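tool_call: predict_structure(chain=1)
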Amino acid sequence: MSWVQKEIRLNERRRGCHLVHKEIVGQLPELKNFKVGMANVFLQHTSASLMINENYDSDVQKDMEMGLNKIVPETFPYIHTAEGSDDMPGHLKSGIVGVSLNIPITNGKFNLGTWQGQVLL
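tool_result:
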């Protein structure tokens, strides 16, 4: 039985929902060495989050951002504002959506549904 632990870095992005599947897979050439396994992708950030969602229609990412902004408005009278007005909403979204993904590996690839990909919020 073998395993790999690796730290990868994603490119900086403006706030929003961004499909990062290709960027993550591109930094994990070791995947091809695993016939069966599980990948845990963990985000070391307190005001961003990861999820699996639609990878085909970019309107889904736009709608996710709009929906989350309605659930977690920037205009709420937050107490924690030292790092800017958008920081606390990011913390809340991170708490709601989460910072880790468990993805099955089959025959050297992430075993996701046809329309699934990793999304950074």
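agent: The radius of gyration is 16 Å. Proceeding to next step.
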